[in-house]
Model the fold of this input.
Amino acid sequence: MQVSDKLIRPLTEAKYLNADNVSRYRCIMRIFFEHYEKLKYWLYLEEVYEEMIQDPFFADYRMEQCQQDLMMLTEWKNLNTIQDTKKVASIEEFKNKKYRYQMTEYSVEIERLVIRLENLFIEGASLEPTLLERIRRSVERFPEMGERDKSEVYTWWTDLNNDFVRLNQNYQDYIRDLNSVRAEEMMHTKEFLVFKDRLIEYLRNFIKGLQRNVGVIEENLRLQSEELKKQVFEKVIDYELSIPRMEIEVSKEMIEQKIQGRYQSIYDWFVENEGQENEAVKLFDATNDIIRRITRYAAQLSEKNALGANRKEEYRKVAELFLRCQNVEEAHKMSAMVFGMECPQHLAGELIRETDSMNIGVYEEQPMEITLKPRVRTYREKSRRSAIRESAEQKQETRRKLLEQQKKETEKLRALEVDGKIYFDKLPVLEPRIREILLKWLSDAMESADFSARTDDGRRYILDRSQEGENCVVHCEDGNFTMPKLSIVFQEEV
Done:
């Protein structure tokens, strides 16, 4: 925070929102704002008065009161005045000082804020995955902005910031609404069960959008070089300085500080810094927590509804079923159906289920076999004699396949060498197995005091860490990862 005169001065422009005659002041300012939206910036006293008395609420409103209200709003700097000399026909009319009134810039913004507050519960907030996709596409275009015209760069930068502000505000407002007291009360009502599934599906779609886009955005932001960022930001600053502004002095340092702050906000939102979770991870956890809470409340409501069932009718129905039994034997069967077995036996075991669905019946599951053993101390299991099997051919075949695989891997690794070195920043797209071998070589060398080790076939190598401060991206068939710029140098055997 930087203390300035604008920051510490009293905001007299907002007095009309809480003054004694607030009903008159707010209606007058709303009239000015509606005309401002229609590009009519100047109004006379008579025009304001005519619009005021059109509403029955101001049936007793007088011209003198309207003039006093306009004078007070002018004193609070809500209105600017200028004396109208075009229609003056005599000295007396000039002395009467007929004025025209115009809203100030502060008043326009205050009225816009008031209108947003009035429509706050109508507009509401939302979680839109499309905003994440738009931000991802904008961030992916960051490198090409270094070659674009400054007007196009400024438009791209403005769109990126607007999308980010909307995403940040919308998710905060939506999560706040779901955690509010009113939402907690609603989750305990039966009406909540109606749209519970839609709400969960909506949140899950947003989580899918997070998973698809956040990782790509984070990687793109990490890979931006300082030279490219400086070049792009300079174009944005030059364009902003070229915009003519009335009565406002804007310095290059102010604009640069604002742009750097906005970029840092976007960077911190998507990228983890020094082990601290970024805002995207916090949003992911908060959304999952809401889904768990919704599911828990829905289960509690279902149990409450089940407990409130009318047991009297159920008992009457059971009694009718027993009366229809022809004999005691049939009644015993009915009793087993209604109340269950009289002396049930429970068998415990390590059952491995093929699905966790609660709708699968017992007879649809795979059977589990349990071996029963006598519970006596003298019981011993019979030992079965088995012959020793000859598996020399199988061992030879396995050994042959293993050697063949090692030979192929060695050929692929030799193909990566350039003058006896393997540069990680110049590697082609790697197979998962080749990547594992290279990372194992790195790990073995890191564990040594002189950063050297030997491969499986006995070749000695040393780890070159001269460019460790720089990063590079290694591309693999199953994904990419960022690592320090290292290289493996093989030593000639003496």
